Amino acid sequence: MGDERLELPQGTLDLLILRTLALGPQHGWAVSERIQQISSDVLQVQQGSLYPSLHRLERRGLIKARWGASDNNRKAKFYELTAAGRKQLDADARSWRRLAGAIAQVLDMA
Amino acid sequence: MLSDILYRLRGLFRGKAVEQELDDEIRFHLAQQADKYVAMGLERDEAIRRAQLAFGATDRFAEECRDARGISWLEQTGQDVRYAARGLWRGRGFTAIAVLSLALGIGATTSVFAVLDAVMLRPLPVPEAHRLVVIRPLVRGQRFVLFNPVFEELRRRQHVLDVMAAISDSSFLAVTLPGSPAPTYLAGSFVSGSYFRLLRLEPEIGRLLNEADDTRSASCAAVISHGFWLRQFQQSPAALGQQLRVRSAACTIVGVVPERFRSHQAGYMPDVWVPIRPLTEAASLDSHTMAFFSGVMGRLRDGVAPGVAAAALTTLYQQIEKTEPQGPTGPGRVAPAPTDYAMRLLPGAQGLGVLRDAFDEPLWIVLSIVGVFLMIATSNVATLLLARGEARTRELATRAAIGGTRWRLVRQLATEGALLSVIGGAMGLLLAWGLTPAIASMISMDYFTVVLETGVSMRVALVVAGAVMLAALVTGLLPALRVSRVELQPAIAVSGRTTAGSTRRLARHLVIAQMALSLVLVFAAGLLLRTMTALKSVDPGFRPHQVTTIEVEHEDTVSAATGGSENADARAAKYRSLDEAINRIPGVRSAALSWLELFGGSDLWLTMHPAERPEDRHDTRVDYVTPRYFETVGMQIVAGRDLALADRHGTPLAIVVNETLARTRLGGLAAIGRSIVLEYPRDQQPPFTIVGIVRDSKYNGLREDKVEPMAWASLEQWPQSLRAIAIRTEAGPDAEVIRRARAVLTTVDPDLMVRKVTTLDAQVDDTVGREIMLLQLASAFSAVALLLAAVGLYGTLTYAVARRTREFGIRMALGAQGARLVGMMLQEALTMVTVGAVVGVPLALMAGHACRSFLYGVAPTDVITLVVACALLGAVAVLAAYAPARRASTVEPVVALRCE
User: Fold this and answer.
1) Which residues are CB-contacts of B46 (< 8 A; sequence separation ≥ 6)?
2) Which of B140, B290, B413, B761 is the most exposed place for a label (fewest CB within 10 A)?
3) Residue B65: which of B109, B114, B18, B127 has the closest Cα?
4) For residue range B15-26, what is the model confidence (pLDDT) as tens digits?
5) Any idea where the domains of chain A sit in the sequence?
């Protein structure tokens, strides 16, 4: 199974994080779990590398963070999408789909 | 963007908390992951281990998070500074030189600019100072004076200025304080009543002078300075209503000037302001020949441009001059026509600007000198940093290889230069603190004691910041950008041999620049040195050595200035007894009293005509002296006789003329025995008989190239007030003689106040004070600049030799003579000097042109000075290059091969 996991192309992690957070506020661990689950374990996110992305997004104002309690009552940092983040997500998702579509077309042609 | 800044700021100011949060977040993640593994059936310990494995190295991610948060640049800067500080500490000798030269450059620039700011840039602390103008009358383009009747007429009829006020400064004003029998001498200003309205000042307490105070009455009003109020009255409101006696009139203190206001004049701090009109005798007020204003200022009416106002005032001035009494006429002199008069308006925001007029040019020149020096110092430090950077090429390459980005390397190197500049700047400020009073003390005026407030103003702070930033940019960034361009691969592969040629080129360019700039300073210093030598060898026409001069001031100086008065007899008797008593003091060879002073900066011009030819009118300088005056100051009587004791009050008036007056107007030697009339402004116009002719001499400055006609009448026969006493002693200034002379003065006339005791030599030197100041500064800075340039050249060559050790070794192995290698290195040095000279000569000539008005006896393009300056530069370069060159020639071939 591990062999078939894909490394994320550069820059796509941010998109995945935004998409995941679009479902509702989540803490970091849950975001990484969710990405793996939804992608049916195909996408490999090195758990540690998630955090720099989260912090960068927070700095850019696309997500915001607050401290809260997790399900099992631990202190956790929850991230949620801001309005700017939602807009960014729409734009990024659209361009990603166009790019993926275009690449698929080229590949299918051959 | 805002969120970005807030985010970074939070990281910056709450660094601890942010780190803690980061820690908590990672810990939470690991705990969750471990829980998951436990749920999958792993042992707790194993679960934690696996969780950490899955996460990766927490430190690395924490670091990445910090990067992502954008706070780490600050920490990096901290690291850079620590790193740079360690490096600088390791190279302490280098650091000391660099810091000292930067400190000297920055400190000197700061001091000079602070003084320049105080002298001529800082505006008066009054509302809308930029609307103030200085009104300057001109005749045929030459500066002229405004006589009171003309001033009043002008003021009455003009309508381009809101206010016009005349000012007459008297820095040695006899004022009798309440409850004190004898007068004290204060700095005072006689002003028009409109003065304070001109300046729009409000009183600290009481009221200020106004137009009503201009009327002549038995009592007059006086306004005192805040400082005087504090000193004399301990800031008590009881000061108001106190009486001061000024020029034998009683003046009532009516108010105190606000603390921030010093005066209308940079460097002048009056204690008391009194109105001109009530305190000046009618003869002076009505005089069309005697001017007593220090200056006239005005405030432009709203919406009136200075040019428009000047044109309007010129027209009016010419109209008024049409109706004025005619000036002197006669062959050789054409009286000015009304159209020869003009009015110029100068910006008055900085006040009257007497100091500015005198020191504008020298101060800018000095500022240029220290500015050039600062450039030399910074480029010198840059050279040394470059050399250091090159020596560290291998270290840099290694750092680049293990992941340092180019930007990071640049930053590290630049930090070193910036740190040097900041330390240099800080030390420079300390230096400036000590240096500024010294520079300020070079600003001196004969008319008043200059008190400069050289506080740090916004402009000064900006200049310092600019100087430090220039230093940081040149010393830090330039070498850093160059050194970081090192091609890393070959640098590691073959060590120093392939270091970037561009770096060496930059170092050479910097050394060349230093050479060129040093040449400019050395040339300027050379020109000034030759000027001083020329001035020193000028024969003034008298012998100033061993002459002590005592300047005295009498309470009624001004009222007596216009000529004889009712107590002339008493005064003549007083002068005679003074003269006799001083001449009797042991150690005195001869002594004389006079009205004016040689090289004292002032003179009196009167119109004269031969008694038999009233139409042959000419202007001549006049002074009044006692017998033995010429003997005392060392002027030679070439024909006839000196004024004699027999020429006493009541006998026919005797006069001595100089060669120029005799030759040009009175038929040379035939002048003796002729009778001339001095046209005094008032009715008395008595004939004087010429009894002697005295050799021509300089009068107010060594630079005078033309001797003016002059006549000396007897002080006793025409008892002007006494201003100066000249005493020729047996052996130089003699404290005992001065003490006894003072005692004589006190005995004969207690009202006579000694204003200054000096020597005629010092008096002469004072007239070239600005040249001396320039010479001293230029020589000091050019010497240090030469030294720095030598250090820069030495450093560059030393590193060049070190780098080429292998090459030299091989050359030696192949049989090169040591002398040849020395020659090679010296040639390299001399090439740099030559290029430096080629660049520097035009700059030096420009510098010579800029200070041409201070030169005497030497052309601003003097070839000899230029050649000597170039030769000096070459000699210094050879000296600096010799040691590195020697080293090159002593390389052992074996050592050279081993050093890879």
Assistant:
1) B37
2) B140
3) B18
4) 667 777 878 888
5) 2-109
User: What ipTM was assigned to the predicted interfaces of this complex?
Assistant: 0.86
Q: What is the pLDDT of residues B138-176, one digit of tens each?
A: 988 888 888 898 999 999 999 999 999 999 998 888 888
Q: What is the pTM of this model?
A: 0.72
Q: Which of B639, B598, B619, B726 is nearest to B679 (CA)?
A: B619
Which tops the pLDDT comparison, B312 or B31?
Answer: B312
Q: How far is CA B289 from the centre of its chain?
A: 34
Give the dihedral sign, CA B828/B829/B831/B835. positive
Angle value at C-alpha B661, between B658 and B666, nearest 5 degrees: 120
The per-residue pLDDT for B497 is 41
* Residues B243, B253: Cα–Cα separation, whole Å: 6
- Find out whether B724 and B550 touch, Cβ atoms under 8 Å: yes
pLDDT in tens, B446-504: 667 777 777 766 777 788 778 777 777 777 777 677 666 655 444 444 444 444 566 67
Q: Which residue has the tokens 């631990």?
A: A74
Contacts with A70 from chain B: Cβ below 8 Å = 28, 32
Q: How far is B54 from chain A (nearest CA, A)?
A: 6
Measured distance CA(B415)–CA(B432) in Å, rounded = 25
- Give dist(CA B559, CA B563) in Å, integer: 9
Give ∠ CA B624-B628-B633 in degrees, rounded to 5. 80
Burial B853-880 (b: 16+ CB within 10 A, else e): ebbbebebebeebbeebbebbbebbbeb
Choose, out of A49, A54, A57, A59, the residue to mutate when testing the contact with B (most B CBs < 10 Å): A59
Query: Is the Cβ of A11 closer than 8 Å to some Cβ of chain B?
Result: no
Q: Helices marked H in B537-675 — which ranges?
A: 557-560, 568-584, 629-633, 659-665
Q: Domain A2-109 belongs to what topology?
A: Arc Repressor Mutant, subunit A (1.10.10)
User: How far does the CA of residue B42 sit from the closest CA of chain A (Å)?
Assistant: 18
Task: Give yes or no for a contact between A43 and A8, defined as CB atoms under 8 angstroms apart.
Answer: yes
Dihedrals φ, ψ of B143, to 5°? -60, 135
**Residues B709 and B623: beta-carbon distance below 8 Å:** no
Structure tokens at B230: 């504090």
Which letter does DSSP use for residue B596 in this model?
S
Q: Residue B869 in 3-state DSSP?
A: helix
Q: How far apart are CA B509 and CA B513, in angstroms?
A: 6
Token output for B681: 């402004």
What is the mean predicted confidence (pLDDT) over B393-407? Answer: 64
Among the listed residues B580, B668, B662, the one whose alpha carbon sits nearest the alpha carbon of residue B628: B580
Supply the Cα-derived Rg of chain A in whole angstroms. Answer: 15
